[in-house]
TrEMBL record:
InterPro entries in the cross-refs: DinB-like, DinB/YfiT-like
Record domain DinB-like: where: 41-166
Domain of life: Bacteria
Record protein name field: DinB family protein
Regions crossing the membrane: none
Gene3D superfamilies to which the protein is assigned, alphabetical: dinb family like domain
């Protein structure tokens, strides 16, 4: 599967960073390799390291992992709805609310990594079954236009962004 990058106008501007950071030719390989890469880097961390917050008011490493997985769930759901031709406007979600109610710190790092891997497997199964027509479909999420192909790039780029932040802000202490 080779999917071209979405054009400006196919997604809200605030997703530009995520889309820009995913090379067109590497979308599928990034999606496939991220769970294994993050498991290798984080799978042996202590629970103390998982509860680390690099600053007051910031999420713990575990909360970041949970956030990445929850966001992928939401984005994959949007991708499914839009790919299937559903034109129902889709609501937004509050990442702060999701994290505050999830209690991710009570889960082990390994549980959170396995959860991410499971969700990513479902995302990949959906992505692999879509045809060219589905990739061109657009819908509305958070009152803004978004395309299926933009959602795929956002999923990969969002995880890439947060895994980079984990390396820079959580693993350097």
């Amino acid at each position: 599967m080779k999917l071209s990058k979405p054009l400006i106008g196919e997604y809200p501007q605030h997703f530009e960073e995520y889309i820009r950071d995913v090379p067109e030719s590497q979308l599928l390989s990034i999606l496939e390799l991220q769970p294994e890469e993050v498991m290798l880097k984080l799978g042996t961390l202590s629970e103390e390291a998982g509860n680390y917050k690099y600053a007051a008011g910031k999420w713990s490493l575990k909360e970041v992992l949970g956030h990445v997985t929850d966001t992928e769930r939401v984005m994959s759901y949007r991708l499914l709805r839009i790919a299937r031709g559903d034109k129902t406007p889709l609501p937004g979600f509050s990442e702060e609310l999701f994290v505050s109610y999830a209690n991710f710190d009570r889960l082990s790092i390994l549980q959170l990594l396995k959860d991410f891997s499971t969700v990513r497997g479902a995302t990949l199964a959906l992505i692999r079954q879509l045809d060219d027509e589905a990739w061109q479909r657009t819908g509305t999420a958070c009152d803004e236009l978004i395309s299926c192909r933009a959602l795929a790039f956002i999923i990969a780029g969002h995880a890439k962004h947060h895994f980079k932040m984990i390396r820079e802000r959580y693993l350097q202490h």
